[in-house]
Amino acid sequence: MIYHGFRTPGFALMLVWRIPPSLFLRDTSLTTRVLITGAAGFLGSHLTDALLAEGHSVIGVDNLCTGSMENLKHLRSDPRFEFFEHDICLPFDFGKVDYVFNFASPASPEDYGRLGIETLYTGSAGTRNSLDVAHKYQAKFLHASTSECYGDPTVHPQAEDYWGNVNPIGPRSVYDEAKRFSEALVMAYHRYRKVDTRLVRIFNTYGPRLQSNDGRVISNFIVQALQGHDLTVYGNGSQTRSFCYVSDEVDGFLRLSRSAEHLPVNIGNPNEWTILDCAQAVLRVTDSESKIVFKSLPIDDPSQRQPDITRAKQLLGWEPKIDLETGLKLTLEYFRSSMPFSQLPEEKPESASSQAS
Ligand SMILES: NC(=O)c1ccc[n+]([C@@H]2O[C@H](COP(=O)([O-])OP(=O)(O)OC[C@H]3O[C@@H](n4cnc5c(N)ncnc54)[C@H](O)[C@@H]3O)[C@@H](O)[C@H]2O)c1
Prior knowledge:
By secondary structure, the protein is an alpha/beta fold. It has a domain at 2-202 and 245-267: Rossmann fold. It is built from nine helices and 15 strands. α1 packs across α6, α3 packs parallel to α4 (173-193) and α5 packs across α7.
């Protein structure tokens, strides 16, 4: 793969990192050409790896607002991978594709807190542009939605037919409502334009390539423990979350992508942990002597989050396999190997890292 610099295709300026022209002549008739928006992000990059490993060719599209080329650097010499730096809020067309995975969106409370308006546009205009590509090429479409659609749920655990309890004007609303709107848009393209769509409601996922400083609970705790800082728990730590290791999550995406299900499917680990238990698990696996300190709970922080995965089990034969301590050890290895101890970032003093996306 070589770097071609900038080019202007008429509607937008795009940075193109792609294969030499001769390789476009390759016979791809036996493979699927897949487009992934948000490919440079945590989940998008793992999904890219999984699809390449299955033999498909992948076009990654990302504006790098929260993602990083570091997550894709191991693919520079893979001729089946192309990358376009592009904001999906602007229309795009990178040629015929068979499948669109729409994963672009700021996802952590830190990121969507900083990029509120961009998050709303990505969920609306960006999702529309991605759907238009699928519609044009009659490609299948899978959209990354979120457990945040359930808001601060009054039903526990959350099944897909629960409609949620979302504050439409609170600080989290830029993300929650963007995702709820994008779900409505995906269903509308399915109903009115006959696009073959799928919706995955992703619950908290963790693993290698999580940003070290975006305020998500697992990365926050691991970085704080490695730095020898106190672990920050918001509230009294009794709020619960479920944490799914990334390989399990991606397995769920792939199974759903091959299914004929158009209604939302929860993919997440149903084992419920209090935030306090999670902090203690991180202290155990990191062998850290850090203490746990408590700060006030951010506004609209959900008190419980746990997926009901009955639908995923029945339709996809899916359930997670990696337990939290095993997943934490694998994630810890990544943080240790990717960041020398002395260069680990300073703790984020903010808020909302409460813990989710
Ligand atoms: N990780 C989780 O626990 C989780 C939970 C629920 C839902 N999700 C969803 O999964 C998807 C991926 O999340 P992630 O954790 O990998 O986050 P991430 O921030 O690591 O990745 C998102 C990627 O999208 C890109 N992006 C954002 N806006 C864009 C735009 N307008 N145009 C092009 N690229 C854009 C970012 O640069 C980034 O690379 C998101 O849609 C998120 O809402 C993730």
